Ribosomal RNA small subunit methyltransferase A
Amino acid sequence: MYKDIATPARTRAILDKYGFSFKKSLGQNFLIDTNILRNIVDHAQLTEESGAIEVGPGIGALTEQLAKRSKKVVAYEIDQRLLPILKETLEPYPHAKIIHQDILKANVKEMLDTEFSDIRDVMLVANLPYYVTTPIIMKILEEKLPLRGIVVMLQKEVAERISAKPGTKEYGSLSIAIQYYTKPEVVMIVPKTVFVPQPNVDSAVIRLTIRETPSVVVINEDFFFQVTRASFAQRRKTILNNLSSQLERGKEKKADIIEALNQANIEPSRRGESLSIEEFAKLSDALYEKFS
Ligand code: SAM
């Protein structure tokens, strides 16, 4: 019986056997601690009837733990050199499937329809490549896929920004975008020592429970996100100054912006970081009437 893939000795043996060298440009920091991996899977709250999607299986450390606790796993891996390795390491788990593709180019919806047609509960679980953490999470959320949620390892600083509350220095348009679609919780802080090679930044695991309906209702979603991004463009500027300098035709419509702020009961001298997501929703709707 083999030891788990993630044990330091087995990981070393696999890497040596294939002469594998890590590519920093692909965010390759592999986990070598089975307890951490089991904890990540615990936080996904899978059952034998669940499905799991993974991004970046590496040599299969997390894929193996997911396969042990779910009905099916589909993992997207961009690095072709890992395919023969995964074929060997995941051989005992025929219900784990690897797709050789960049997740950002993948049609995940179509994959869900074909691979998970008989599974109702699907989670995305991953130790993400840190160079593309935010684009991956936003792609999955914006496509409104029928998932229960996402449990991912990422940079601690990004986890703090995602889960930040109004009035903190971490709060910004990323917090709002993700809290619009999900309820985030930082569930673990992870030391650098559990990876090979060790990353330069601290890590955390975040769970994003997808909401059945977004946290606020807005007339136009794209415009709502434009308004939030504009409001944080320069953090020291007031909301009025950011909106008039950042929104298209903002300068000529300064009087309209002041009126919209009044309608939403927001002092023009406030800063974006002090506004709740509900206030942004009211403001975006008031502005939309004047900008559309
Ligand atoms: N899951 C493994 C573990 O925990 O040990 C490896 C995690 S490592 C942080 C990230 C993995 O994502 C690497 O295997 C890398 O090749 C892969 N990867 C990087 N960019 C990717 C992309 N755009 N699409 C799919 N996989 C990607």
About this structure: The chain has two domains: 8-210, 221-291. Strands lie at 30-31, 51-55, 72-77, 96-100, 122-127, 149-155, 182-190, 195-196, 203-210. The longest helix spans residues 277-291.
